[in-house]
Amino acid sequence: DCIQIVQRLEAMRQRCCRLEQDGQRAREQLAHVEAERAALEVKLKHARNQVEVEMKKRHRAETELEKQERKLQLVFETLVREHWGSGMLSGEQCSVLSALAGRRLGAALVPGRRSSAVDESCQSLLSHSDISYDRTEDDVVRR
User: Fold this and answer.
1) Tens digit of each residue's pLDDT (9 = 90 or more) over 27-73
2) Which spans of this chain does the record mark as coiled coil (predicted)?
3) Distance between CA atoms of 28 and 33, rounded to whole angstroms?
């Protein structure tokens, strides 16, 4: 009976040693994953900040574009009103103004219209509401 008890105790001791080694490997793996997660969170924070900066730049550029388009529209309208019918413009100038009125100026100077040069295809990807981050998933009890 004593020998069987000793054998069982030895088997239990070996099992405990294996479990301790498994626990140590799991702790090391957890530390590695947490370090990786922290690095990814830093990258995410930098990316969010960069998106915010780019969104502000884009907004300023669009505001400036609209302002310049309004000025150009006023100049165009003034030219048309004052000089179109008065004969002060040469035939070439009239044809240039006509072409501009029919193409770029006529279409691009509509108030509130954005320039076609700006690619709007990824607008939803850059929207502030799409970039929000909910930390409720991070509220996990840690040892």
Assistant:
1) 999 999 999 999 999 999 999 999 999 999 999 999 999 999 999 88
2) 23-78
3) 9
């990807």: which residue's tokens? 125
**DSSP state at residue 113:** P
The H or E element spanning position 55 is helix 2-83
What are the angstrom distances between the C-alpha of 21 and each of 2, 12, 25, 27, 32? 28, 14, 6, 10, 17
Whole-prediction pTM value?
Answer: 0.50
Q: Are 97 and 79 in contact (CB under 8 A)?
A: yes
CA distances from 103 to 98, 106, 131 (A): 9, 6, 38
- Inform me whether the pLDDT recorded for 109 exceeds 90: no
Q: How far apart are CA 18 and CA 12, in angstroms?
A: 10
User: For the segment 74-101, what is each residue's pLDDT rounded down to a tens digit?
Assistant: 888 887 777 665 666 667 777 776 776 6
User: What's the half-sphere exposure (Cβ side, CA atoms, 13 Å) at 143?
Assistant: 4
